[in-house]
């Protein structure tokens, strides 16, 4: 018996991602005549490609994950293969339709308000972790910052302060020889401030060299930061060298520990969660399993009054219409379009071009239009209205779904979101990213079962079972419950492994001089 | 008795930096009528400023550290203050005079050939240290790389291999979401290759995630790198997650240790030294103490057949004539000018401008022209002919004084030089930088005695005593001997402190997408 014969005996898997969809995605190839979702294929549907489930009139929208991904170029019958030959974009791509579509939210059906156990801070915000941070103003003080953390760990003193999750050094490769009037410098200042004030930080020390462009005193002044039991700073040059600085820093941290240890978890509403949404190492399943499942979880969070941060501007580039239509107001939509123009200029200045169109490989894999490709990335934000748009590392204070401008590169994107105040992070991955962050815990969602099984020590949740029939709504609820657990203290896989000390990567914009 | 009265009783210090100089620099203010170097001041010379020691005709060159820093605007008498009112640049700044001036070298006076104890490698080059390196292709594998190093340290296994200096993780914040056709990607590839092959490395392992833009296999192919007892690579995705990857990496490193431990120091000529020249945290003394003293040491090294790498293009910008005149050939000089043009474009693309002119503060401190300012930075290269010009992280194979294009930012500049093959690094500092590097040891030279004393645990050599009368030639010889000692295994201050695990910072050029 040949492979063909064997395959014919096993029903091909396929997914219909949303009740509004007029198509199904073939997880396995669907042979002609084989029926899925009650519709028989009238031609062979390749693996990863789309089959119409309903008649679609010429010019009518093709709907995937409840969103328009294109329009039928001619009338399409149920069972037909949907791809470039019969889907086009018309003028959709030039029409932002600011704020025309209401966001769609799951009804909570008299559900009990969701809660978690968090650390309420003096400013009213809530942490999910209780870290002491060691920031460095410049690479020149990175080693001193690391030495402080190592000495605190080596000393065993943290055993006396069980409510502290750890001491985390957050060092980087810049901080000097950059234009102090440029946007790169502003980004660094915001990022440092955002980490210093992230609600997952109980207290922070910042160590500098002394002569660097990033002057700690000027930065403190700019943000109104005063020395206190939750913030201390020092420089190597003023303290008289490395050894004395490490000694003084360790002493300062030891003095912070009793205060930091006073924090206690209490029951707080889920509305206090600020969830960063990330994907990295995407694959052909990202857009149909983990991303929409995370989107369902994000919608639940928003329905409960919380905040979800969608980011990675290059991955929605060219399909920003997906979001402008859901913008809470024209002004919010226009801010998103401004970001898009900033990126075009940024790429041009760096001798590149923005291009998020499906590649030949994407198309072979079944992605037809830029809307469909970007929808896969944006799906992790769910269907809520877009409440606000932020620049990189700006403080996120709005409730609901918001967008923060970041690159797609995972550590840089996550650094911006955590600086913005994210207190929990969910990260979808197909190829198997091993990312983890501090002070904000990262939950990793596998898009497919084989990778989940191969990297089970790094993956928190398998979304690959969506391909086997688990409804996205159920998976979304599982993720939401897991987020609440992690927010309450359950340790993620990356926390168990010890990730987070090397993933602080502020976005570098501009020349290193 | 007032301060003035007290000061008058103490002879003001001043330095004449080279026998060819027609001026002295006032270390302390010189009051009218007070004589230094046998010449009485005819007016008050402020601290840090210049006084003529000989008559200078109108239009004749003003010479400092043996170099032209400008031309007399009118006839100048001995004892006169030299500054903007009587020094100008004429058309000097537009005249490269390629290769017109022979480099000037100290005569070695039948001196015995200098040697050091180094590790001769299979390719003929010589190491001054014997490290095992752990490179990462992308930030996504940084934590795995660190964990491997930590596990090797924790295990105590290195005690059985006394000829190995250590295992050094070299991680960074990029490697993905960058233009793989752009120059930033080329720079990263060269940098990684340069570290993998630096003669201070006995063996190297490289760890990746798997799906990153920096594909280890393609990089190996590009440089003809094969897996061997001195090079191993692996990825997290292929190995099945973080824990297994760390385990596999540690096993691979353990297998490398016996080979790495076979290296033995042997007596080799000083011509095998490739000395990286750096300054950071400069002050008003850099250009008259530590930099010319290091220049004297560099000249000695070149006279012995070795190599010295001058860098930090922004700090010689606008005064590249200092070097084009000393170029070994017109072609070498033209390559330097090409770099200058590249930087003008780089700055413009990043919305900045190149400007190395003396600032108002520089001028108040006594620096008159851009030539004088840049001369202070370039002085650490001495007076040798310029043998070759390299791009960032290119392999340095020429003997003599060479120039490598780098930013001024210390960790980025040093990373390029070490990637280029530098096996020892000398770093002058006035404010007190705490820099240290691996696998190449950094020797730190203080420009002034108060900083040296305040940061003596970080500083290797005090050049501040030049202000008290120690001749630059003597200080240069002291530095040269110290370099030979360090090359032979003597540990620098930054090595004693443990620096070098956080200062690998490849130059990021281009957009992070
Ligand atoms: Ca992505
Ligand atoms: Ca990403
Ligand atoms: Ca410099
Ligand atoms: Ca400098
Ligand atoms: Ca420098």
C-alpha end-to-end distance of chain A: 67 Å
Number of domains of chain A: 3
Bound molecules: calcium ion
Arithmetic mean pLDDT of chain A: 94
Largest interface: A-B, 66 and 66 residues
Query: Tell me, what's the shape of chain A?
Result: elongated
Largest sheet of chain A at a glance?
7 strands, parallel
How many helical stretches of chain A?
15
Percent helix of chain A, as a range, is: 25-40%
Oligomer: homodimer
The largest beta-sheet of chain A arranges its strands as 19-20-18-17-21-22-23
Uncertain residue ranges of chain A: 1-7
- State the secondary-structure class of chain A: alpha/beta
Please give the radius of gyration of chain A in angstroms. Answer: 24 Å
Report the portion of residues of chain A in β strands: 15-25%
Instruction: Count the E strands of chain A.
Output: 23
């Amino acid at each position: 018996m040949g492979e063909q014969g064997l395959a014919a005996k096993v029903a091909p898997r396929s997914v219909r991602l949303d009740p509004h969809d007029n198509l199904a995605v073939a997880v396995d190839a669907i042979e002609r005549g084989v029926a899925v979702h009650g519709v028989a294929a009238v031609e062979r549907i390749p693996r990863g490609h789309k089959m119409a489930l309903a008649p679609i009139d010429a010019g009518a929208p093709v709907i995937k994950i409840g969103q328009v991904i294109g329009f039928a170029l001619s009338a399409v019958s149920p069972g037909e293969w949907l791809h470039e030959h019969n889907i086009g974009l018309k003028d959709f791509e030039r029409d932002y339709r600011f704020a025309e579509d209401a966001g769609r939210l799951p009804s909570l059906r008299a559900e009990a308000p969701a809660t978690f156990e968090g650390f309420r801070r003096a400013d009213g915000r809530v942490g999910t972790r209780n870290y002491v941070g060691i920031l460095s103003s410049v690479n020149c003080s990175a080693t001193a910052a690391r030495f402080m953390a190592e000495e605190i760990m080596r000393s065993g003193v943290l055993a006396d302060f069980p409510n502290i999750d750890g001491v985390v050094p957050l060092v980087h490769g810049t901080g000097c020889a950059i234009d102090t009037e440029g946007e790169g410098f502003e980004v660094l200042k915001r990022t440092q401030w955002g980490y210093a004030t992230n609600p997952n930080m109980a207290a922070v020390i910042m160590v500098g060299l002394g002569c660097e462009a990033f002057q700690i005193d000027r930065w403190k002044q700019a943000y109104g930061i005063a020395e206190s039991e939750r913030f201390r700073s020092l420089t190597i040059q003023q303290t008289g060298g490395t050894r004395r600085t490490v000694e003084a820093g360790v002493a300062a941290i030891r003095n912070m520990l009793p205060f930091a240890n006073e924090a206690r978890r209490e029951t707080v509403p889920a509305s206090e969660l600020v969830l960063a949404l990330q994907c990295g190492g995407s694959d052909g399943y990202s857009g149909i399993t983990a991303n929409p499942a995370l989107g369902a979880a994000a919608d639940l969070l928003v329905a409960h009054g919380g905040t979800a941060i969608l980011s990675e501007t290059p991955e929605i580039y060219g399909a920003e219409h997906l979001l402008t239509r859901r913008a809470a107001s024209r002004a919010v939509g226009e801010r998103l379009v401004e970001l898009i123009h900033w990126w075009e200029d940024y790429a041009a200045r760096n001798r590149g071009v923005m291009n998020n169109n499906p590649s030949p490989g994407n198309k072979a894999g079944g992605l037809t239009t830029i809307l469909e490709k970007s929808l896969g990335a944006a799906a992790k934000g769910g269907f809520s209205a877009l409440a606000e748009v932020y620049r990189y590392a700006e403080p996120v204070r709005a409730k609901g779904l918001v967008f923060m401008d970041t690159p797609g590169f995972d550590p840089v994107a996550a650094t911006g979101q955590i600086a913005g105040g994210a207190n929990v992070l969910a990260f979808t991955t197909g190829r198997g990213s091993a990312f983890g962050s501090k002070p904000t815990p990262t939950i990793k969602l596998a898009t497919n079962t084989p990778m989940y099984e191969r990297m089970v020590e790094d993956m928190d949740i398998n979304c690959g079972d969506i391909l086997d029939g688990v409804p996205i709504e159920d998976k979304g609820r599982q993720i939401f419950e897991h987020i609440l657990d992690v927010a309450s203290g359950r340790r993620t896989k990356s926390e168990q492994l010890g990730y987070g000390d090397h993933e602080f990567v502020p976005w570098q914009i501009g020349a290193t001089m």
